[in-house]
Specification:
It is a single chain. By secondary structure, the protein is mainly alpha-helical. Helix content is about 45%, strand content about 5%. The protein has two domains: about 30 residues; about 90 residues, Orthogonal Bundle (Cytochrome Bc1 Complex, Chain D, domain 2), CATH 1.10.760.10. The chain has five helices and two strands. A two-stranded antiparallel sheet has the order 1-2. It is globular. The structure holds heme C. Heme C binds next to helix 3, helix 4 and helix 5.
Length: about 130
């Protein structure tokens, strides 16, 4: 009984490990130009709501008319950047979280929390990932 259980446990534990290794191999081979778009995100809608939050007053964002701010870094090419704000790995999850509340990653960042809803943050992140 005990032996069966531990064999089973070993087998079950082995599956995620193999999966993780496989995923690791995939992500190592990943071309950074192919950063995943966010599931469910609507990039076109994201582009449209960027101005509602005033991102354009601080950032230069290609494809958004009047987004020529110079307070923060240009977001053109953000899809290829390794880090967000120099502190968080550039993953879709971190991008959404940064847009909603950058100070959770860096309490001293000059980027304010502008009250972006989760839905809007997902859509904006989807748009930003089209900027290569
Ligand atoms: C008051 C000015 C201001 C506003 C408004 C603003 N940001 Fe920022 N943003 C900054 C600054 C400054 C940084 C650099 C922060 C840092 O490195 O700590 C930044 C950084 C970023 C980064 C990381 C860029 C990089 O190269 O690592 C992203 C992405 C970003 N902002 C997106 C947005 C979005 C989307 C909005 C609108 C929802 C927005 N920002 C609104 C000032 C602003």
């Amino acid at each position: 009984m005990t032996r069966t259980t531990s064999t089973l446990r070993r087998t079950v534990a082995g599956v995620p490990l193999a999966l993780l290794l496989a995923l690791g191999a995939v992500s190592c081979d990943r071309n950074d130009n192919d950063l995943p778009l966010i599931a469910g995100g609507d990039a076109e809608r994201g582009r449209a709501v960027i101005k509602k939050y005033g991102c354009n007053t601080c950032h230069t964002i290609s494809g958004v008319a009047g987004a020529d701010g110079l307070v923060g870094p240009p977001l053109t090419g953000i899809a290829q950047r390794m880090y967000i704000g120099g502190v968080a790995r550039n993953t879709p999850e971190n991008m959404v979280a940064w847009i909603q509340n950058p100070k959770q990653f860096d309490s001293k960042t000059a980027m304010p929390n502008v009250g972006v809803t989760h839905r809007d943050a997902v859509d904006i992140a989807s748009y930003l990932y089209t900027l290569k």
